[in-house]
Amino acid sequence: MKAKHLIIIALLAFGNTLWGQKIRVRLFSERKLDKIELKASFGAYNLLFDDTISATMPRNAHIGVVMKDNRLAVSINDSVIGRYKKLKFVSNGLKCFFQITPSNDEKLQRRYDDDLIVFCDGKSLICINEVEEYNYVAAVVQSETWGATTNVEFFKVQALCCRNYMSKNLAKHSKEDFNLCDSVHCQVYKSRANKPEVIEAVFLTRGEVITDDKGKIIETPFHSNSGGMTVAAVDVWGKDVPYLVSVVDSFSLKSKNLNWEKQIKQREWLNYFRDKGIDIKDSANLDTLLHFSQSEGRKKDLLGVSLVKIRQDFGLRSTYFNVEPWGSDVKLSGKGYGHGVGLSQEGAIIMCEQGFEYWEVIEHYFPQCKVVKPQDL
Length: 377
Ligand SMILES: [Zn+2]
What we know:
Blueprint: H1 3-14, E1 22-27, E2 35-49, E3 53-56, E4 62-68, E5 71-76, E6 79-84, E7 86-102, E8 110-113, E9 115-120, E10 125-132, H2 133-145, H3 152-168, E11 180-181, H4 196-204, E12 209-211, E13 222-223, H5 233-237, E14 259-265, H6 266-274, H7 283-290, E15 301-302, E16 305-306, H8 307-314, E17 321-326, E18 329-335, E19 343-344, H9 345-353, H10 358-365, E20 370-372
Parallel strand pairs: 1-11, 13-19
Antiparallel strand pairs: 1-10, 2-3, 2-4, 2-7, 4-5, 5-6, 7-8, 7-9, 9-10, 12-20, 14-18, 15-16, 17-18
Helix pairs in contact: 2-3, 2-4, 3-4, 3-10
């Protein structure tokens, strides 16, 4: 078969998943940068100035970049070498990573895989990491979940959720000429991955994504703990999503952080509902407000006031709670942590520790969805 045909087949097979491709992620996106320092941590790097002039990065050199008159004043080991519009820090070979330190502040120092582009937008230095998608996925999984477990199977679950998010949001910053930022606005990306369990999980699931019954890549929201039952997306965000429905989730009941309690002054609790137009002098209403129960299953509202709103206004850990009078207070006894839609991370960890495989966990939390390998898309 001709090489051209092979390339077309490869594009058809992997075009949807970015398997083995680089993406562009803006670093320090929430910070104004006027000065950075770069250093190759591992592997060899080349420097490319304004896309044309190139130089090999001297070993152990540190590159200083300072914003001056909307240009980059670049120095190597403190010797100024010129002013440019753009600097590219290009890895020479596999597994290269570099260190970036903004404003000489070592507390902000981070390490990233692959390449870096630096330019100026008039207000700040813009740093774009051009990174292999698998290095990005591993870094996000480590940023978001390391510390909760060391279970490889769970990291596979998170890798697929992260890859789905990435695939669906590549155009989120297209006007700014990069794909994703490094903050919670997209996915937290605060350093390269270096934990073997995370890297192994990403490698073993490379290219895989989760699709619905029509073969479409799905949204994969997750939360800390469902409290024993997940919530339908329509009850939280008002949007009906066929695979984000309420699921009985006994696995989350085995977590240490399951239960929570909060006491609120009875007067404050009742006045809150009075201000929402509810007649609190009516004895039936009063009884409901003081003895609200979700023991038979999750509810959407309390006398028409959405539980999502109540959770927000009282700063509750979840919407899954019962109410009882407690002296001059009411006591809210709740289960779970987070919005409750999609995957429960603590439940998923328990499933993985019990021997379930990552695709079984995904099929439990996202009904009618399945894991698809890149060649099957
Ligand atoms: Zn963003």
